[in-house]
Amino acid sequence: MDFLSEANKIKEELINWRRDFHSHPELDYELFRTNEKITEFLKSEGIEYTITAKTGICAIIKGGKDGKTVALRGDMDALPLIDQKTCEYSSKNDGKMHACGHDVHTTILMGTAKLLNSIKNEIQGNVKLFFEPAEETTGGARLMIADGVLENPRVDAIIGLHVNESIEVGEIGIKEGVVHAASNPFTIKIKGRGGHGAHPDTTIDPIVIACNLINTLQTVISREISPTDPGVLTIGYIHGGTAQNIIPEEVKIGGIIRTMNTEQREYVKRRLTEITEGVVSSMRGQSEVTIEESYPCLYNDDNIIKLVKDAAQSLIGKEKVNILQSPNMGVESFAYFSLERPSAFYFLGCRNEKKGIINPAHGSLFDVDEDCIPIGVAIQCESAIRILKSNF
């Protein structure tokens, strides 16, 4: 099948789906309308499915011949943001917006399902469809994996994509190796001894301690990690005090660590704790450090990403497949899947300056050139078929 030609034949339907999702964004696991729309579609296509991870969906297209099983992932949730675009499909749900393109990802997965289901008797193996909730929050992928979506039948490889407003529509971006960072949110409580602002000598000032600690923590990345290894340690908030003339009892600091490999991740976490305990105790205070285990690094498998690259080049041309050199310091819950099975994750261009589609993701004016949607459908279809036929 010429997947690009077939995807363009259903382009109007794809755009209608996308605009419907965009107009009715939902957050986290509360994707009740979104879930209903997708399951209605799956029923109409005769595609088997189960509900997973609260409002997530795992569907399967069983091929007419025995073979491997490949999974395709599309995330569904929106962001808590006011949509400031003026268009017929802007958000109807106050304070909620598809500002990261998950409406597009869901649409692409549905379009991919439609085309592959139409030739299911020719497919050698199975195609699983993962509609993931809560990608923007806690990562629905973890619950989906715990629910067993990678088994029965066992998934051999997984493909994911994400729209990217810095890549021109009609093109894609592929990064080999590490694609996205791991993250570790943290909080630090510094306890001192409060008192009158006029008599600091009778107190243990947690604000002064916090200032020293923040400055010292910034040396972990700049002086203890190789300059060739990307890493970030960001302080996002500092809370403490109630009045100008009162030295408080306690200060809270919050931030996040982003790293690109397991060794670096463990090192920075350890040094965060060591430095905090050392600085705070040296200034007569007490500290409590809490480090959360959040999204891991996202790794592209060499064999699977090559198959996706070859599939994309056959559809849109070699010159439109950009090989990216630098990883993204942001996080992506697809990483949980990439730790479990050989995976490929790539970026679908959605930028079009002529149409004014230049605004960044997670912004209130974000939009995509919808010409990217059939391209995404075609690449997902072609990639899935090539993986099922391969001997990776």
TrEMBL record:
Ranges for domain Peptidase M20 dimerisation: 186-276
Binding-site positions, Mn(2+): 100, 102, 136, 162, 362
The UniProt record lists the keyword Hydrolase: yes
UniProt GO MF annotations: metal ion binding; N-acetyldiaminopimelate deacetylase activity
Cofactor, how bound (note): The Mn(2+) ion enhances activity.
Domain of life according to the entry: Bacteria
One Gene Ontology term from the biological process aspect of the record: diaminopimelate biosynthetic process
Protein name as annotated: Amidohydrolase
Gene3D superfamilies in the cross-refs: 3.30.70.360, Zn peptidases
Cofactor(s) the record lists: Mn(2+)
Alphabetical keyword list: Hydrolase, Manganese, Metal-binding
